[in-house]
Design brief:
This protein is an alpha+beta fold and about 110 residues long. It is about 40% helix and about 10% strand. The chain has 4 helices and 4 strands. It has a two-stranded antiparallel sheet. The protein has a two-stranded antiparallel ribbon with strand order 3-4. A hairpin with a 2-residue loop joins β1 and β2.
Length: about 110
Amino acid sequence: TDDLTLLDVIDAQHIAEALSRRHANEDMYTAIGPVLVAVNPYTALSKMGKSIVSDDVAWHYFLEPNRLTLAPHVFKVAADAYSDMVTHQEAQCILVTGESGAGKTETA
């Protein structure tokens, strides 16, 4: 599942197994509700022949009116924050955290 809040059992073991399966399928982004978990693949990823961090992908997430239907992605987090900032006239904050070498710079 794209969103781990939908797991039948939510505990450390099931979350780790789900993240491991997604990593094996080259799905580096997973949602836990509004939180995005990124597992560094240590390689460039693509879907359908396009980089998952291309300008086309960024615009796709930004322009999609119903982002709830889209797969988890760092561009979705950014598009949601921007949309909320404009709609609600409120400042937004995105926290990027992780261990050294986890891919924070690539994500940001």
